[in-house]
Design brief:
By secondary structure, the protein is an alpha+beta fold. It is 33% helix and 26% strand. Strands 1, 2, 3, 4 and 5 form a 5-stranded antiparallel β-sheet that branches. A hairpin with a 4-residue loop joins β2 (24-32) and β3.
Amino acid sequence: MPDMESFEYAVIRIVPSVEREEFINAGVVLYCKSKRYLGIEVFLNEELLKSLCPEADTIVIQDYLNGFVNVANGSNKKSPIAALDIASRFRWLTAVRSTILQTSRIHTGLTDNPEATLQKIFKEQVERG
């Protein structure tokens, strides 16, 4: 049996009207310290979002999701957050916030393949339906 390692993940949510606290799942961010892995998958289901909030600006929301991806990947070298180590980037991404993009509480598990686990959770939490 392969060595199982602990991981943490959170579901990324779009909350178009913070006051109403309604949301749709739009992604997953997963961190595995022992494998030095930080992965993210996002998908904006525009039809579902518009059914929840017809006036939602999908272009702006997609930009916000892309910003999360850039932070997770450390790909924006001008961003001080993206320049942090992967543990700090994961903590920043999953910090409690009251904005249009939020994350669930952090969940934990065991994996021998963080990338495959990320894809599995993403399919279960975002692509279902």
